[in-house]
Structure formats: structure tokens, C-alpha cells
Amino acid sequence: DAASREASIKAMFAVPGMSLRFQSTKVEASKAGDIGYAAGVYQWTSKDEKGGDYHETGKYTEVWKKQADGS
Fold first, then answer.
1. In this structure, are residues 45 and 53 in contact, taking their beta carbons and an 8 Å threshold?
2. Is-contact 27 7, C-beta < 8 A?
3. Left, alpha or beta for 30 (phi > 0: left; psi -120 to 50: alpha)?
4. pTM (predicted TM-score)
5. Which whole-number Å values give the CA distances from 41 to 5, 11, 51, 59, 63, in the listed order?
6. What is the largest distance, in Å, between two alpha-carbon atoms of the chain?
7. Angstrom distances, CA of residue 36 to CA of 9, 41, 42, 60, 61
8. Tens-binned pLDDT, residue by residue, of the chain (71 aa)
């Protein structure tokens, strides 16, 4: 549910030394402007449960669709 997702996100950002960076490598939108996407890489840095440095890198894709209300 929405409350548990929000709590999980807040807990993630409360991790000591947490840093999350996104870098888009490609962004496109349709000519009509009703759909678009971004793709790129991310870097996550934080401390693990023992206080050691934790690093993760990966790829991401986001897709946007214009809603009926224009948002």
C-alpha cells in the first residue's frame, strides 16, 4: 500500500552516508508529447550494516505518459 511504500522510501534515504545519483544518457518524447522516456545509469552509495562503504551502480529506464487531465 502507499503508506508502506512511503515508509520504505523514507527509511532508504535515512541510511547514513546515503547518496543516489542519476545520469540520463537518452531522453526522448513523442511528437504529440503524450509519451516519453529516459534511460541512463545510477550510482548508490551508503554504509552497510557493519559501517563499511557500500556502492552500487546500474541502469534505469523511466516511461512517462500524459494523463487525461494533462498532467
1. yes
2. no
3. beta
4. 0.71
5. 23, 23, 25, 4, 15
6. 51
7. 25, 17, 19, 14, 11
8. 888 989 988 888 888 789 999 999 999 999 999 999 999 999 999 988 888 999 999 999 999 999 999 89
Instruction: Give CA torsion, residues 26, 30, 34, 40, to 10 deg.
Output: -10
Amino acid at 28: E
Which three cell numbers mark 12? 532508504
Task: Give the three cell numbers for residue 40.
Answer: 541512463
